[in-house]
């Protein structure tokens, strides 16, 4: 495509620089030359990439407005320029790689200016009747353009690759089952009972014992790998559990030592409290004893106060009062200890 474009480019350039004062014959000659080059480019584009629907496939009249300005086939995935010329998507993209104008009227054009086709034109395009592309293989289907892709995906005459691996054949969809029945690449289970699936092409080289031995070796290798993986996983888990247990043991030992220290302090405090309680009990007993003595002393003073209205009795009361005062002095002189808790 690039080679063809380079070969016709010298003929396209003079047209772009055509002056308004050129003669009518020169302009006519330039247009004819440009049209020839455009047809050549369209033919090369059609051969390089099949874009656009071949107009020969359509039933009935096709309006020229529904033809691509580049490939001259019926529009496929159409886009429209501001000048209202329409093109196939791949055709105009390929054109704008080397040009920056409309291929029809030479007006400035780039990809950002392209827009979808007008709705009424899309409706006219979708209503066109087209033959299936598998017509040469026997399909006589004629349908609207908007539904032809769906039909061709399911057409019984379309050629599809064989579903067997390594088979290079392409057969019609309707003949696929018949081909699979005789395909040399079809797979089947070994008739000798080994259960191995073989291809017809490998039938003469199949050895049940060798295949089973190979499969056994593969299973053994897989089992060894799985055992190693499980072993490594279990060792990793055990190491993790061991580290966790060591950390837990260290924490528990520290907590036990802390509890022992707290218990020792509590026992010391308890002993101190017990000693203080004994001293306090002794003080209470001593105070109770002094209380009884004071009560007895008060009673004796009351008895002495009621005695004696006469002088003789006054002599006796003086003697008793003297004894009571002596007892009070002895109580005051007793040492007393106060324990504060």
From TrEMBL:
GO terms for biological process: regulation of canonical NF-kappaB signal transduction. Keywords: Coiled coil, Metal-binding, Zinc, Zinc-finger. Residues 68-106 form the RING-type domain. GO terms for molecular function: zinc ion binding. The keyword Cell division does not apply. Residues 151-194 form the TRAF-type domain. Residues 209-304 form a coiled coil. A zinc finger (TRAF-type) spans 151-194. PANTHER family: RECEPTOR-ASSOCIATED FACTOR, PUTATIVE-RELATED, TNF RECEPTOR ASSOCIATED FACTOR. This is RING finger protein 151-like. The gene is rnf41.
């Amino acid at each position: 495509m690039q080679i063809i474009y380079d070969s016709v480019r010298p003929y396209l350039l003079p047209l772009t620089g055509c002056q308004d004062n050129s003669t009518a014959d020169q302009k006519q000659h330039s247009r004819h030359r440009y049209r020839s080059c455009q047809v050549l480019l369209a033919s090369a584009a059609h051969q390089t990439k099949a874009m656009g629907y071949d107009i020969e496939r359509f039933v009935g009249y096709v309006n020229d407005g529904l033809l691509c300005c580049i490939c001259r086939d019926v529009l496929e995935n159409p886009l429209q320029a501001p000048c209202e010329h329409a093109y196939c998507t791949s055709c105009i993209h390929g054109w704008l790689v080397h040009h920056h104008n409309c291929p029809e009227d030479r007006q400035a054009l780039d990809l950002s200016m392209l827009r979808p086709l007008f709705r009424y034109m899309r409706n006219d395009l979708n209503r066109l009747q087209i033959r299936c592309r598998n017509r040469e293989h026997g399909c006589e289907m004629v349908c609207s353009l908007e539904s032809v892709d769906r039909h061709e995906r399911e057409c019984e005459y379309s050629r599809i690759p064989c579903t067997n691996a390594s088979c290079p054949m392409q057969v019609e969809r309707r003949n696929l089952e018949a081909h699979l029945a005789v395909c040399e690449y079809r797979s089947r289970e070994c008739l000798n009972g080994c259960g191995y699936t073989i291809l017809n092409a490998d039938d003469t080289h199949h050895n049940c014992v060798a295949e089973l031995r190979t499969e056994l070796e593969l299973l053994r290798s897989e089992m060894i790998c799985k055992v190693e993986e499980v072993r490594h996983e279990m060792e990793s888990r055990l190491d993790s559990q061991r580290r966790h247990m060591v950390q837990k043991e260290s924490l528990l030992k520290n907590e036990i030592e802390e509890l022992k220290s707290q218990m020792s302090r509590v026992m010391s405090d308890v002993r101190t409290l017990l000693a203080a309680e004994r001293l306090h009990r002794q003080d209470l007993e001593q105070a109770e004893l002094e209380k009884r003595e004071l009560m007895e002393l008060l009673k004796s003073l009351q008895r002495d106060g009621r005695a004696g209205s006469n002088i003789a009795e006054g002599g006796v009361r003086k003697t008793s009062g003297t004894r009571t005062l002596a007892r009070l002095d002895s109580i005051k002189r007793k040492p007393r200890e106060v324990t504060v808790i």
